[in-house]
Amino acid sequence: MSTDDRADRAASFDRAAAVYQATRPSYPEDAVRWSVPREARDVLDLAAGTGKLTERLVALGWHVVAVEPSDGMRAELTAALPEVEAFPGTAEHLPLADASVDAVTIAQAWHWVDPPAASAEIARVLRPGGQVAPIWNVRDQEVDWVARWTEIVHRGDTLETSYRDPELGDRFTEPEHATFRWTQRLRTADLRTLAASRSHLILLPPDERDALLDDIDELVATHPDLRGSEWTEVPYRTECYRARLR
Ligand SMILES: C[S@@+](CC[C@H](N)C(=O)[O-])C[C@H]1O[C@@H](n2cnc3c(N)ncnc32)[C@H](O)[C@@H]1O
């Protein structure tokens, strides 16, 4: 299977839900508070995955529903957050009533959606004046080992899947943007598992995937900032956008 196909890549997470849940980062509180209006009551976490952002939204006191197309990812979410209603569905076909939520978050996933169809659906389910917030965690490439790790996990990858200005269309106000810097504490050995949770690696033939993971092991064993350390700090920027329904 070609790993260049966007739909296959978007669906790939179903095969790696456990490694995703084990190693992918959460989201810092200040970024989540910036992204969701304080006065909101009902929040949709769209493309919720295993519930990394959902968990933060629940902890901050909002009533949260989740929509996620992958059965495997949704099963992890429900196991971790049994109190959250989690529906199968996509950004382009939301299984929610018109004007039923005050805010929509979509973390690490706007690059997988069809922007016009997703914007129209989000506008439909938002109440008047509601807010949408596309969010991404981006590793800080200025740190040498991070740049090397990233080079390995994107080797041979021709699909652009990083964050970008989200095109939200005419139904929304011009998006505001904010950046939040933080670090994720991770066992150094889990840098291999984190690599295995990337959609490019999930879909590679096993021998090619193993070759890239071997290169990650080599990096961990030899880089002066990683060698011999049980724990490492992965530096992230959380890039947040927010826009109101007109
Ligand atoms: C990188 S994960 C992000 C999961 C979660 N939001 C997080 O921050 O950890 C991307 C998620 O988008 C989902 N996804 C892919 N295409 C989608 C679509 N068209 N609509 C909604 N979700 C989609 C995938 O199943 C996957 O769970």
Automatic annotation (TrEMBL):
<keyword id="KW-0489">Methyltransferase</keyword>
<dbReference type="InterPro" id="IPR013216">
    <property type="entry name" value="Methyltransf_11"/>
</dbReference>
<keyword id="KW-0808">Transferase</keyword>
<dbReference type="InterPro" id="IPR051052">
    <property type="entry name" value="Diverse_substrate_MTase"/>
</dbReference>
<dbReference type="GO" id="GO:0008757">
    <property type="term" value="F:S-adenosylmethionine-dependent methyltransferase activity"/>
</dbReference>
<feature type="domain" description="Methyltransferase type 11">
    <location>
        <begin position="44"/>
        <end position="132"/>
    </location>
</feature>
<dbReference type="Pfam" id="PF08241">
    <property type="entry name" value="Methyltransf_11"/>
</dbReference>
<dbReference type="GO" id="GO:0032259">
    <property type="term" value="P:methylation"/>
</dbReference>
<protein>
    <submittedName>
        <fullName>Putative methyltransferase</fullName>
    </submittedName>
</protein>
<dbReference type="InterPro" id="IPR029063">
    <property type="entry name" value="SAM-dependent_MTases_sf"/>
</dbReference>
<comment type="similarity">
    <text>Belongs to the methyltransferase superfamily.</text>
</comment>
